[in-house]
Amino acid sequence: MAPLAPRSGDAVFASVERVNAELFTLTYGAIVRQLLTDLEEVDEVNKQLDQMGYNIGIRLIDEFLAKSNVSRCVDFKETAEVIAKVGLKMFLGVTASVSNWDADGLSCSLILEDNPLVDFVELPDACQGLYYCNVLAGVIRGALEMVSMKTEVNWVRDMLRGDDAYEIRIKLLKQVPEEYPYKDDE
What we know:
Layout: H1 9-15, H2 21-39, H3 42-68, H4 76-92, E1 96-99, E2 107-112, H5 134-146, E3 149-157, E4 166-175
Antiparallel strand pairs: 1-2, 2-4, 3-4
Helix pairs in contact: 1-4, 2-3, 3-5
């Protein structure tokens, strides 16, 4: 039997079960609204959205690896491309471009072509410090940590805040060596 070929983001997106996009967007909006009501501080809401995303990411990576047939990436550059072209497409139905690499190849930007989380959203003046989609930064950070990459993930530009694009900056802090839960008998 021939090994399974990696599936493109479009192929995976076409084969996974989806929920209604409007329902998802409105539900996410209700969560953000409730966090703003409960926590009152925009910075605390940003931290909570990041933590929620992180918790999602550490679980979502298993589904991603099982359904995408993506093999181990050889380096951080390939990992960023897989996130942009397969991961975002698989779970959000959008793709991103990878750009703005630093000289060391340890930091890059994902420029999202679209962002379905912001449909029907306008930020009031009192929420100008809010990174409404900070959950996405957390998801990426959590998923990468599960594949042995300690990262820092932040929003650089957000169209809800008046910028011209949706840009997420990913910085690889360290590659964690894999630890096996058992030792081979010698």
